[in-house]
Amino acid sequence: MYSFVLCSCLALFATTEAAGPLAQIASGPAACASLTSSLGANKVISSQLNPNYIETTYNYWNSKQSQYTPSCIVYPVSSQDVSISLKAIKAAGSRFAIKAGGHNPNTFYSSVEDGVLISLEKMTTRSYDSKTTLATYQPGGTFGDIYEYFLQYHRTVVGARLAGVGTGLALGGGLSFLSGQYGMAVDSFRELEVVLPSGDIVTASATKNPDLFFACKGGGGNAYGVVTKYTVQSRPAGTFYAGNLIYALQQNNDVLEAIGNFTSYNTDPKASIIGTYEKLLTPETDFNLDSAIVMFLVYDGPDPGKAFDNFTKLNPLINTMGQKNYLEVVNMPIPLSTQITRGYNIFRVAVHGDPASDQGFIAHYNAWDAWCEANKGDYVLSSVDFQPIAKSLTDASKTQGGNAMNMPSGPWIWLNFLINTPPTQSNGTYNAVQESFRDMVNSVQNKAGLPLFLNDANYDQNPLKTFSTYRKLQTLKKRYDPDGFFAKHTGGWNFNA
Ligand SMILES: Cc1cc2nc3c(=O)[nH]c(=O)nc-3n(C[C@H](O)[C@H](O)[C@H](O)COP(=O)(O)OP(=O)(O)OC[C@H]3O[C@@H](n4cnc5c(N)ncnc54)[C@H](O)[C@@H]3O)c2cc1C
Ligand SMILES: *[C@@H]1O[C@H](CO)[C@@H](O)[C@H](O)[C@H]1NC(C)=O
Ligand SMILES: *[C@@H]1O[C@H](CO)[C@@H](O)[C@H](O)[C@H]1NC(C)=O
Ligand SMILES: *[C@@H]1O[C@H](CO)[C@@H](O)[C@H](O)[C@H]1NC(C)=O
């Protein structure tokens, strides 16, 4: 415990400016004292025994982030509160973190040791305007909560495919089951309220601060400011035809081929899939009980036609397809799956071209499969997910003004690798396993010219650098964070890679 905390503190100081370690530690409590007097004790919790403090620091999908102890947690209820918080943190020279849903697995992206944690969880105001069909939501709550709110109007917003994920998803692009029709979550942004690192509260849209708007459309969270309100184009939410197909791993090659065919040839924007291959820690047996293939198939409409025939014809062991409402869709395969999978989780991402001409996704699958077999016992769960990016998605992005990824025309495919490791593992083994998993992912080349997906990336993959807009984003980062307040005092994506 001690050596780990010490190591992480050293890493932390290495990334902060001139002030010595002791000044850094004292600055957290100083910021908290100042905030307690300006915001009041019910918005600033410093006691580690307070139930709110315990819950907010527990609530990370990568439970390693729960080991850090912020000097205090601030619960703003307005953009003014966020502005006051940033100014006080800056004046004290403290570390800080901005937390929405707490699902980003990377260290110090939404967690902080000895500094101020700004938890946006109490900002949950939502509204719907039936004349304009625009929806607004604040950053608090999960996408499940947000979808539930808008369903009273038979509408939804483009957001997470799993109910439990938080709104930070949108700032990393945001891939939804509806993306084939409407583009990424950011493509439906119409106006954002942003608290800049200076503390100024501004509006960003296609006409007001358009550069800031561009950067916030997928250029990463906690980089240019804090988004306190999203105004987005809402979308109709009716009856879906959706479910999971589960196959034995012996069918891996056929299912992979079907995923490739769907990515290359599906032209129905209402049809969406994720293919997930999972390996558990259970030892290999003759029945392959340690592994499974779980397909998520979602059609926006009551009848999918032939869209999924290439998957159903492969005779899955389990088929839960049927008509569902949107809340049921985002709770597949079972409700609370986001909460259940909390643990020592780390993500990595890869990208490959159209499977009709680029077999990189299969090479990456084979590398992952071989690694998992060779490293039994080092993980509780490992998975690789296949996420096709359709031409209809990139077209929908373009017609709405494009986004910070400047996505080249589909089809192409993002892969998400997950490793969940046992909490009992020694820190030395943990680090060795992470490095080995990283080397496995790096052993297969990504397709050049395609962006890595921020939401699935490990910090060391420097995904922003793969964007064709990287130079522009670097310039905008300097403009909106001119003295490097965010760059030096909170975690997040590297703009200097
Ligand atoms: C189980 C699971 C399912 C997922 N499914 C999807 C999916 O379907 N589609 C997809 O695109 N991604 C998905 N992801 C990835 C997910 O988008 C990222 O993990 C994302 O970072 C989560 O956002 P959050 O609010 O939960 O996390 P947080 O860790 O709280 O936030 C993520 C980052 O954004 C910053 N941030 C958050 N809110 C703001 C704000 N208002 N202003 C400024 N900065 C902010 C935080 O500081 C942090 O750095 C999934 C992840 C998990 C674990
Ligand atoms: C590893 O780090 C964790 C978290 O800080 C700590 O609890 C544990 O004692 C450390 N183990 C070793 C062997 O250093
Ligand atoms: C994939 O497409 C090829 C032809 O392009 C076909 O031969 C094959 O049967 C298809 N596989 C699946 C599983 O759909
Ligand atoms: C299914 O695979 C066949 C090739 O066997 C392909 O022609 C067809 O377009 C595919 N359909 C979909 C919806 O992916």
From TrEMBL:
Q: What start and end residues bound the annotated signal peptide?
A: 1-18
Check the record and name the PROSITE patterns matching this protein. Answer: FAD_PCMH (PS51387)
**Keywords, in A-Z order:** FAD, Flavoprotein, Oxidoreductase, Signal
Name one molecular function that GO assigns to this entry. Answer: FAD binding
Superkingdom classification of source: Eukaryota
Alphabetical list of SUPFAM superfamilies matching this protein: FAD-binding/transporter-associated domain-like (SSF56176)
Please verify whether the record's keywords include Oxidoreductase.
yes
UniProt cross-references to Pfam families, sorted A to Z: FAD_binding_4
Q: Where is the FAD-binding PCMH-type domain?
A: 66-237
Q: InterPro entries given for it?
A: FAD-bd_PCMH, FAD-bd_PCMH-like_sf, FAD-bd_PCMH_sub2, FAD-linked_Oxidoreductase, Oxid_FAD_bind_N
Entry similarity comment: Belongs to the oxygen-dependent FAD-linked oxidoreductase family.
Q: What is this protein called?
A: FAD-binding PCMH-type domain-containing protein
Can you name the source organism?
Gomphillus americanus
